[in-house]
Write a structure and sequence with these properties.
5 helices, mainly alpha, 83 residues
Length: 83
């Protein structure tokens, strides 16, 4: 039951927050889920991250960081408008 409610809350917050960014930025940010999932599995479950997995995680995290540094901040503050 805890997993159902925590996942539901996370997706609910994510859905609300995505209204305040562009679709392309939301897609890149959501792709970070795999990085944080792998880090969480390593920390909490003791799973090992292969060197290839670590490089992949670094590339994804680096691209998200680069995007956040080069984005137009005025675009983030406006909620998306439904057509």
């Amino acid at each position: 039951m805890l997993g159902i409610f925590s996942t539901g809350a996370a997706f609910g917050i994510q859905t609300v927050a995505q209204r305040f960014t562009s679709a392309s930025h939301a897609a890149v940010i959501v792709s970070a889920e795999s990085v944080f999932g792998a880090i969480g599995a390593a920390i909490f479950l003791g799973e090992r991250l292969s060197p290839t997995g670590a490089v992949g995680a670094a590339v994804v995290f680096g691209s998200i960081t680069l995007l956040s540094l080069t984005t137009d901040k005025s675009e983030i503050s406006k909620p998306a408008v439904a057509d």
